[in-house]
Design goal:
Helix content is 77%, strand content 0%. By secondary structure, the chain is an all-alpha fold. The protein is globular. GO terms for molecular function: transmembrane transporter activity.
Length: 458
């Protein structure tokens, strides 16, 4: 998903789009993904996980090809929404398979590896995307970051019958009111957050926010009644009765919000502010990726027993990374773009280590706070919150970045300099730091993990 970030400046330039359009290209996917995620998990339970995963994968391939052929930014946004819906059919099946295949005592390690893989893939995607745009194979430019999904997706689809186990369908009634209210509430909140700043926060923004609040209140009421009646709700309100689960969700929310916002802003600073090529921009993410990979692999075993303390340590490392980044940016841009990217590398390396220590064990730590029979429902809620936070981070930090910059990043009449971009990123760095502190405080409040039971039958 994050491979699109490194292509964002090229997409904006080629399609003559505004910065808020690019935010929708990124967050439209995430928003659709988040809204349909829980329903995708339910479909897997009802129709069989392998069948639903394969359907979602093939739909994702078709939508990727459509994105690569998009003639305008409006068409691209629509296809990205469809792509997000297809992804929502795939990912819940992966977590459900982990819950089924691995014994309870091995799940934290499996989930830590899953989190590490997802995080490393996000960083590697920046480099691969930059390389594809730089190579400009067949003159495709940014479109190649979508075309690359086609052969990979088809190869993965060919492997599905051999690697993904069958599951027995479990018929459950659909929660149509819950899905409808979720689909209403989320766009009413995210869309005006993205478009509001670009449009001068006109009158329609505030009724939209009010409508989102009413829809969320109605969703909570409907889901409580549905659960009390013994019918399966889309989101079980009883999950939120436990302090550990709600605290863990708060940590996931603030962590993902800052994480995804950072990726988007760095792509613009590297390419529009420092005038690095897409490939050089992708390489600029390499310290972040190396730190993430090293921390994820090193923290895999400690995550099983010390997930909470590992999260706190990771958040503290993120705070240190943002302090180093702020100190680096406060000195002003270096003599050359390459030197500026090099000067930022230590901060990004530290930041990557912190993110790796948080991202890898986070899902496992949260799921450990709920009873085993509620793990499936809890997984859907965690993933939904994570994706909504991603969309919120892109919207909020994009708006803050543009406000500090004083113009659209590609507005030529504004005559923006490298100093303008580094100053805007410096202002955002303090907000990123505040979210890292909040992540650490919430992780510190999580209950200690339950120790695996000892086998006394031998």
């Amino acid at each position: 998903m994050l491979i699109v970030n490194v292509a964002a400046p090229s997409i904006q330039r080629d399609l003559r789009a505004g910065f808020s359009d690019i935010q929708l290209v990124v967050s439209g996917y995430v928003l659709a993904y988040a809204v349909a995620l829980t329903s995708g998990g339910r479909l897997g339970d009802s129709l069989g996980r392998r069948r639903v995963f394969l359907t979602g994968l093939l739909a994702f391939v078709v939508c990727s090809a459509g994105c690569a052929l998009a003639p305008s930014v409006g068409v691209l946004i629509g296809l990205r929404v469809a792509q997000g819906l297809a992804a929502a059919l795939m990912l819940p099946q992966v977590l459900s398979v982990i819950q089924d295949v691995f014994p309870r005592q091995e799940r934290p390690r499996a989930l830590a590896l899953y989190g590490a893989t997802m995080g490393m893939g996000a960083v590697v995607g920046q480099i691969v995307g930059g390389a594809l745009i730089r190579a400009d194979v067949l003159g495709l430019g940014w479109r190649s970051v979508f075309w690359v999904n086609v052969p990979i997706g088809l190869a993965a689809a060919a492997c599905v019958p051999f690697v993904l186990p069958r599951s027995r369908p479990v018929r459950r009634p659909a929660d149509a009111p819950g899905l409808l209210l979720t689909a209403v509430a989320m766009p009413l909140f995210i869309y005006p957050l993205i478009r509001g700043g670009a449009g001068g926060w006109t009158w329609w923004v505030w009724p939209a926010f009010a409508g989102a609040a009413l829809a969320l209140a109605a969703l909570w009421s409907v889901e409580r009644r549905r659960e009390s009646a013994g019918r399966a709700p889309l989101i079980a309100p009883s999950l939120f009765h436990g302090r550990g689960f709600t605290t863990g969700l708060g940590a996931a929310l603030v962590f993902s919000c800052g994480n995804y916002g950072l990726f988007l802003l760095l792509a613009y600073v590297f390419q529009e502010g420092l005038h690095l090529s897409p490939l050089a921009s992708g390489v600029g993410f390499l310290p972040l990726g190396l730190g993430f990979a090293a921390a994820s692999l090193a923290g895999r075993r400690p995550a099983v027993r010390h997930g909470n303390r590992l999260l706190t340590s990771g958040a503290g490392t993120m705070v240190l990374g943002y302090l180093v980044l702020a100190a680096t940016l406060a000195r002003g841009p270096a003599a050359s773009a390459g030197m500026q990217a090099l000067a930022m590398a230590p901060a990004l390396l530290i930041e990557g280590v912190g993110q790796g220590l948080v991202a890898a064990p986070l899902i496992g730590v949260i799921l450990a706070t709920v009873p085993p029979d509620e793990a499936g429902s809890a997984s859907g809620v965690v993933l939904t919150i994570n994706q909504l936070a991603s969309s919120l981070g892109v919207a909020a930090f994009g708006a803050l970045f543009v406000a500090l910059l004083g113009a659209d990043p590609q507005q030529t009449s504004a005559r923006l300099t490298a100093h303008d971009f580094t100053d805007a990123l410096l202002g955002c760095a303090w907000a990123f730091l505040a979210l890292a502190v909040a992540t650490g405080l919430l992780a510190w409040r999580l209950p200690p993990p339950a120790q695996p039971a000892t086998d006394t039958t031998r």
